[in-house]
Specification:
2 domains, 7 strands, five-stranded mixed β-sheet, Nonspecific Lipid-transfer Protein, Chain A, two-stranded antiparallel ribbon, Arc Repressor Mutant, subunit A, globular
């Protein structure tokens, strides 16, 4: 057992860049495969281990455990137990961990310009919602005020638009102007792929509870950056 611990410590150390550059140290902290996506999935609040696995379908339980341990050791996240009656363990970002969101926004804008980016691949609730905070166009949001409810796989979220900015949070859907229900890929198809809402409704991919004109206005608030070479 002692040899196993020593080997684990040595293997982690061997992957460090030994470089004083801040970017190099950032990669020491979160550069292992899946680490950034684990952080992404916690950006809107704590999650259980089982929920993280479900939202990262390509990750094994063993690798997820390793990444959670490494990120906890680095001070990026913490484990805590919810109060009764839930009494279950969840993982949550530290205040410093939440400061990583601009990294995802910059990477997302940059990578979305790649001609090889495939938006039809699986998309988690958090991926979709963070994309809204990343791709919202300040010009298009000027003078717009609305509260849009989204009923996704993991529950309800509220997108608040006002004052030229957009915010997303887990919330009740009782006090919203409109509710859009569906899987993230279907909503992304409307927002980013130009698929008509009416077509997605006919196909049963999503449902709109409220004024369709407001839904159209909402999906028009987002703009992908141009592809490289356009």
């Amino acid at each position: 057992m002692e040899l196993e611990k020593i080997t684990k410590v040595e293997s982690r150390a061997s992957r460090r860049y030994e470089d004083a550059c801040g970017a190099a140290h950032a990669l020491d902290l979160v550069g292992e495969r899946w680490a950034l996506l684990v952080i992404r999935e916690l950006m809107l609040g704590p999650k259980r281990f089982s929920d993280l696995r479900a939202d990262l379908p390509g990750i094994s339980a063993n690798v997820l455990t390793q990444r959670l341990e490494g990120l906890e050791e680095a001070g990026v996240l913490v484990r805590r137990k919810l109060a009764p009656p839930a009494s279950t363990q969840v993982y949550e970002l530290t205040p410093w961990g939440y400061e990583a969101e601009p990294i995802f926004q910059a990477l997302g804008r940059w990578a979305a310009r790649s001609p090889r980016h495939d938006p039809s691949l699986p998309l988690s609730d958090v991926s979709l919602l963070l994309s809204f905070r990343t791709m919202a166009d300040p010009v298009r949001m000027r003078g717009v005020k609305m509260r849009i409810g989204l009923r996704l796989r993991r529950g309800g979220y509220c997108v608040r638009v006002g004052g030229g900015s957009l915010d997303v949070s887990r919330d009740s859907l009782e006090d919203v102007d409109l509710v859009i229900a569906g899987a993230p890929p279907a909503i992304a198809a409307a927002v980013y792929g130009g698929v008509p809402l009416a077509q997605l409704e006919t196909e049963g991919a999503l449902a709109i509870e409220g004024e369709h004109g407001l839904a159209e206005r909402f999906i028009g608030l987002f703009a992908l950056p141009p592809k490289v070479g356009d």
